[in-house]
Amino acid sequence: MAAVKVNGKAVEAPYGSLLSDILPRGSTDTPCGGHGRCGKCRVTAHGALSAPSPEELVHLTPGELAAGVRLACCARIEGGCTVTANAAGQSRVQMDGELPKLRLNPGFTGYGAAVDVGTTTLAACLYNGDGTRLARAGGPNPQQAWGADVISRVGAALSGGGRDLARSVREGIGELLHRMSSEAGIGPEQIEEVVITGNTAMLYLLTETGPECLARAPFTAGRLFGEELPAAGLRLPCVHAKAYLTRCISAFVGGDITSALLYSGICGGPKTRMLIDVGTNGETALWHRGRLTCCSTAAGPAFEGAGLSMGMPGQTGAVDHVLVKDGGIFPHVLGEGTPLGICGSGVVDALACLLELNILDESGFLEDDPAIIAPPVSLTQRDVRMVQLAKSAVSAGIRTLMHRAGVTCREIEELVVAGGFGSYLNVESAGKIGLLPMELVPKVKVLGNGALSGAAMLLLDRDMRGCSESLAARAETADLSADEYFMEAYTEGMLF
Ligand code: FES
Fold it and tell me: Is residue 391 part of a domain?
C-alpha cells in the first residue's frame, strides 16, 4: 500500500490504483464518466505517479503537467504522493415555480416533500399539510461521477454498478431532505410522504430496476412507475414515509415530462400547444385536438455543457450569455470572474453571434478555428459540429411531431420550454441557430423546473395522480428511428 495525502488527509492506497479511486465522490467534475475523454477531472498531484497517459497529453498543456496538474481518471499511484482536488463546482439548480391554486388533498397531515431527480441536478421542496412551502434545496446529482449522460450511467449499471448508482442518488436525495428538514426545524423522519419525479432512466437507477430494456431495441420500458413504495425501501431518511414515483410515458419520455405537462396545463383545452425539455435528450410533447403525442431525440451532452472542448455546467466561471455589441463579442460570465468555460446557454448565444458576425457560415464552417468567445474560452470547429448534430436532432423532433399531427407553426398557440437549460436559454438565439423554429419563438413561454412543480402538485393533491397516470397511459410516443420525415428534417436541420 502507498501512503497518500488527499486534501491534507493521510490515506493508504493500493499501488496501481487511479487517483479517482481514492478521491471522495464529487471531488472533481467527471462528465465522461472517467474515460479520459473530457479532461475535466483535473487535480493537482505530486510524488510517485505514472507517466502522463496519452489522454492527459491531449488535455493538459506542458505547463499544466509541469505544475502537477493531472487527470484523476488517468494518473495511477506508484508510491507516496499528495493529491489536491477542489470540490466540483455547484451547478445552477432550477427550482419550482409558483403553483396554481389547488384543491388541497395531501396524503399527509404534517410534512411532505417533492423531489426532482434530474440527470445533472437534484431539486426538492418541503411542504406542510396546508400547502405552505417551508424549504427548498438543490445540488448536483452525485451520479455524475458515472458520466454526464443517461447512456453512460445505464451502461455502468449494466456492468454491475447498479447498486452503487442507486446508493449515490439516494444519498443525494437524503442530503436534500436533511437540509430542508433542518431549515424547517423538524427531523426528516417527520416527513410522511415524498413524490419523486425524473426521467425513466433516473427512476430505474433510483429503484435499482435492471435497465436492460432502456439500452436495447425495441426500448420498451417494462416499468413505468406511477406507483407508491415505502421510502425506507429506497433508504431515504424519511423512514416512515410513502414515496410516490411519477408515471413515465415510455423509455425515453419520463415521469419528469408527465409532471411538467401537469404543471404547464397544456393538455385538456382546445388550444394546440407544445412542450419541450432539452437536456441530453430533447423531449417534446404536442397536445392537439385531445391527443398527446411525444417523442425523444438524442441531443448528446453539448447543451449540458459537456463534450465541448471548453464546455462546463452552468456554474461560476461559465460563459452563460453572449451578445454582439459594436461589431464585437460581449460575453457574460457567471459570478463575474475569470471565464473558465462555456455552458449550454452560452454556446447557443455564441453561435448566434458568430453567425451574425459572419465568422460562422450556414453550413457550420468556422472561419476562425478556434473562435475566441471570452479569452481563454473558445469554440472549435469540432464543437460547432457537435452542436449542429444536437440542434438538428431537437428541431427535427419538433417538426416530425407537427408533421404527424398535420399541424403548422401558425396553429401552435404556445411553445412551453421546460427544464434547466430552457430556463437560461435566450430563445431568440435558439431561433437564430435553428434549435427552435423561428416562427415559434414569439410563442415561447419559459416554465422553469416544471417537473418539480408538477411533483409538488401531485404531493398536495393526490387526486391529480390518477389524471396524470391516465394522461401518460393515453399518450402516444412517436418512434423516430424509422421515420423518413424525421431523417429528412434532421439532415435539413444541420444548416444554420
Ligand atoms: S477525463 Fe477524467 S472524467 Fe473525463
Answer: no
Across residues 167-194, what is the average pLDDT? 95
The string of DSSP letters for 329-369 reads: EEEEEGGGS---EE-HHHHHHHHHHHHHTTSB-TT--BSSS
Ligand 1 proximity of 34 Cβ (cutoff 6 Å): yes
State whether the beta carbon of 38 lies less than 6 angstroms from ligand 1: yes
**88 pLDDT band (50/70/90 cuts)?**
very low
Q: Is residue 408 part of a domain?
A: no
DSSP state of 186: S
Ligand 1 atom nearest to CA at 29:
3
Q: Name the residue with cell 430496476.
A: 209
Site to substitute for ligand 1 among 71, 153, 304, most atoms within 8 A of C-beta:
71
On the CB side of 451, how many CA atoms lie within 13 Å of its CA?
A: 34
Same domain, 133 and 43: no
Which atom of ligand 1 has the smallest separation from the CA of 34? 3
Please identify, by atom number, the ligand 1 atom nearest to the C-alpha of residue 74.
Answer: 2
In the reported structure, the alpha carbon of residue 30 is separated from the centroid of ligand 1 by a whole-number distance in angstroms of: 5
Whichever domain contains 133, its CATH number is: 3.30.420.480
Q: What is the pTM of this model?
A: 0.81
Domain count, the chain: 3
Q: Is the CB of 39 under 6 A from ligand 1?
A: yes
The reply to whether 92 falls in a domain is no
pLDDT digits 0-9 by tens, 322-333: 999 999 999 999
Is 200 within the bounds of a domain? Answer: yes
Q: Which residues pair with 191 in a beta bridge?
A: 111
- Give the residue numbers spanning the domain of 77: 2-84
The reply to whether 146 and 217 lie within a common domain is yes
Chain segment 35-68, per-residue pLDDT in tens: 887 777 888 888 999 999 999 998 887 767 876 7
